[in-house]
Design goal:
The complex is a heterodimer of chains A (368) and B (304).
Chain A: H1 2-6, E1 14-23, E2 32-42, E3 47-51, H2 58-66, E4 73-78, E5 81-82, H3 88-91, E6 93-96, H4 108-118, H5 123-137, H6 152-164, E7 170-174, H7 182-199, E8 202-207, H8 210-216, E9 219-224, E10 227-232, H9 234-239, H10 244-249, E11 256-263, E12 266-269, E13 272-276, E14 285-291, E15 296-298, E16 304-314, E17 317-322, E18 332-336, E19 346-351, E20 356-360
Parallel strand pairs in A: 3-8, 3-9, 6-7, 7-8
Antiparallel strand pairs in A: 1-2, 1-4, 4-5, 9-10, 11-12, 11-14, 12-13, 14-20, 15-19, 16-17, 16-19, 17-18
Chain B: H1 2-5, H2 7-37, H3 55-61, H4 64-97, H5 102-114, H6 117-127, H7 134-141, E1 152-153, E2 156-157, H8 161-190, H9 193-201, H10 206-234, H11 238-244, H12 248-251, H13 257-266, H14 272-301
Antiparallel strand pairs in B: 1-2
Helix pairs in contact in B: 2-14, 3-14, 4-8, 4-10, 4-13, 5-8, 6-11, 8-10, 10-14, 13-14
The chains are: A alpha+beta (368), B mainly alpha (304).
Chain lengths: 368, 304
């Protein structure tokens, strides 16, 4: 255990190489490939969000990094060290579970001290470390309470303190905010960001909430069907989605997707010409067109005519709930900053080229 | 108003159990207490003298066979209950952690529970037989002389008190394990796996996981098991009969308080009912006392 205690906390990167996890169905049914040849490098000292819909393999990936699940194939490196075969306790990780898994019969202090006692750290030092950690996560005054006497947010901080107190090399968070209410979620995600910055520990967290991932991550990795879809800075991934899945998964309200086609360098939705670009010449025929809600500019002479059903006023913005015969969904939303431009029932728009993406109809790959 | 109207319904439903309880529980209970304090109760005519006295109590506490059964009962309670609880817990934890044949082992350990105690007792009597018993057979392999455990000879048991008590305790232990293991396995499977994952990541040694996580999380169940099995052990009777038979003269050195009470019911002397009633009340008070202590301790020790 000595090596864990002495390991420096900052500057460990994580590399997943060809990581694969197959859950074999013992009753002869279909095997499930939860994670499929997943390759990713997580830079040291960064907060990285693993993002994807339920069942996309993100939690499985996290548990493999933790060592609670054994990969079917592939390798996991912490820095240069291959930890694939290492048992969880030798990896030097802190893990915060989705429902925190605080020991209900122990006080907050005993919960946080639990890992230190396992490492046989002298009582005085352990007490000191516990109190420091409690102060860092802001629960110093709650040390003698039992978990059941704490709110969800407080329990979460205790769980983070327990994970961090043994100075792990890596902090893993499984859906850290999903059990909190909306307001607390906002507060806690800032808190996680702050704690991560102060300790400088490499942190991976798993979430299905794209807003959560975008707001606190230094980098995000979008996953689906056990495969990495895209990785990068949150804003880059949002602005330049590689494929239709990523475009649809990121952003609230979600992107509107339309059936369109290209003719020469022009892009059409129905009869209406949306925009033109030389690059489209290589992809003649049917395409899928994604337009971000903020990609519409009201213009009475605009080319794209949209009927709308009602106006939603959500605090700062106004969003039009609209429908279009070529749209893939029953409705899509258009966000407008200015109420005065709205005309009754139908409106005409120009489309911002940087908010409009064209995808291959078959593969979903980005074309423009 | 509406609720008031329905009051008699509840009483109507309660009548049958109340009548049955009154006839078979409350009436005998009260009569037993009265008999035990009645000086000169005539069991042939069922006649009370209505003179209050402690004579029956004083008498049984000066009567060696009763003191012997009291000692036996206490030995059974204080050896078999803690031992079987700890063993059941360890076996349950073990069973819960193995994957192959888990159900088979669970069934094997549960078999005594569905088997009649008298039948198990007879099996034990065979196992510990002097000449043909399996236990002596195994001992012989290791070059140990045959031990006369519980052998009958001329109608009397030849085995020493210690050996008989050993066989009896082994029997009670085995008999008691089944239900406890079942309850503990149920409890263990209710503990969220995440606690163990968390403990694993924090490199918690196995022994510490058991003592600091499993046992405290099971503590309500452990308390329940302790209380019910203390009460059960105080009432031990059938296991003695199962192994040693029910001839009082032959078994009185190994009998329990309940056995004594039963013997007093069958005995010829005129005041045997009074002694039996007094012994029953003494047993009742002891059980009451220990259940009280148990509840008090578990309030302090049970974690939630």
């Amino acid at each position: 255990m000595e090596d864990i205690k002495n390991v420096q906390q900052k500057g460990i990167s994580i590399k997943l190489e060809n990581l694969t996890k197959i859950f074999y169905d013992k009753k002869g049914g279909k095997d499930t490939k939860a994670v499929d040849r997943f390759d990713v490098v997580i830079p040291s000292g960064k907060l990285v969000g693993l993002l994807g819909p339920s069942g996309c393999g993100k939690s499985t990936t996290l548990f493999m990094i933790a060592g609670l699940l054994e990969p079917t194939e592939g390798k996991i490196f912490f820095g240069d060290e291959d930890v694939t075969k290492l048992s969880p306790e030798k990896r030097g990780i802190g893990l915060v579970f989705q429902n925190y898994a605080l020991y209900p019969h122990l006080t907050v202090r005993q919960n946080i001290m639990f890992p230190l006692e396992n490492l046989k750290i002298p009582k005085e030092e352990a007490t000191k470390m516990t109190e420091q950690m409690a102060a860092l996560v802001g629960i110093a005054e709650l040390l003698d309470r039992k978990p059941a006497q704490l709110s969800g947010g407080q329990q979460q901080r205790v769980a983070i303190a327990r994970a961090l107190v043994k100075k792990p090399r890596v902090l893993l968070l499984d859906e850290p905010l999903s059990n909190l209410d909306a307001r607390l979620r906002l507060q806690t995600r800032e808190e996680i960001k702050r704690i991560q910055k102060e300790t400088g520990i490499t942190t991976i967290f798993v979430t299905h909430d794209q807003e959560e991932a975008m707001s606190i991550s230094d980098e995000i990795v979008v996953m689906n069907f056990g495969v990495e879809q895209q990785k990068g800075y949150p804003q880059d991934v949002y602005d330049q989605p590689k494929n239709l899945f990523v475009a649809k998964f990121l952003g609230t309200p979600p992107i509107g997707v339309f059936n369109g086609y290209t003719k020469g360098s022009d892009l059409f939705i129905g009869e209406e010409k949306i925009l033109s670009d030389e690059k489209l010449k290589d992809h003649q025929g049917e395409v899928q067109v994604g337009i971000r809600p903020e990609g519409y500019i009201a213009n009475t002479k605009g080319s794209f005519e949209v009927p709308y059903t009602f106006i939603e006023s959500v605090g700062r913005d106004i969003s039009l709930v609209s429908s279009h015969p070529e749209c893939n969904a029953a409705s899509f939303r258009i966000i407008l900053a200015d109420k005065t431009v709205i005309t009754p029932q139908t409106m005409k728009f120009d489309i911002r080229k940087d908010k409009c993406y064209v995808f291959n109809k078959q593969t979903g790959e980005r074309v423009l | 108003m509406l609720e008031k109207k329905k009051d008699y319904h509840a009483w109507l439903y309660l009548i049958i159990p109340l009548v049955l309880l009154s006839i078979f529980t409350f009436f005998p209970l009260i009569k037993t207490i009265i008999i035990s304090f009645d000086n000169g109760y005539n069991k042939w005519q069922d006649a009370f003298s209505f003179r209050f006295s402690f004579d029956s109590y004083i008498a049984i506490f000066q009567y060696p066979p009763f003191l012997q059964t009291l000692k036996n009962t206490l030995l059974i309670v204080f050896i078999s209950v803690p031992l079987s609880t700890v063993l059941a817990l360890l076996i349950a934890v073990g069973l819960n952690s193995i994957k192959p044949f888990q159900k088979v082992f669970q069934t094997v350990f549960f078999l005594p529970y569905v088997t009649n105690s008298i039948a198990i007792g007879m099996v034990f009597a065979v196992l510990f037989n002097l000449h043909t018993g399996l236990v002596n057979g195994v001992l012989e392999i290791f070059g140990i002389d045959k031990i006369n455990w519980i052998n009958r000879n001329d109608g009397f048991f030849q085995g020493s008190y210690f050996r008989k008590m050993f066989v009896l305790q082994a029997y009670i232990l085995w008999d008691a394990l089944a239900f406890k293991i079942l309850v503990f396995i149920g409890g263990l499977q209710n503990i969220s796996k995440q606690y163990y994952d968390a403990a694993k990541i924090d490199s918690t040694p196995k022994k510490r996981v058991l003592m600091r996580i499993t046992v405290p999380l099971l503590s309500p169940l452990i308390a329940y098991i302790m209380i019910t099995s203390f009460i059960g052990a105080f009432k031990t009777y059938d296991s003695v009969v199962g192994i040693f038979g029910n001839n009082w003269e032959m078994t009185k050195d190994i009998q329990t308080v309940v056995g004594f009470v039963y013997q007093m019911l069958r005995a010829d002397s005129i005041n045997s009912y009074s002694y039996g009633a007094a012994a029953a009340v003494v047993l009742f008070l002891i059980i009451l006392l220990f259940t009280g202590i148990n509840l008090w301790v578990s309030k302090k020790r049970v974690h939630y």
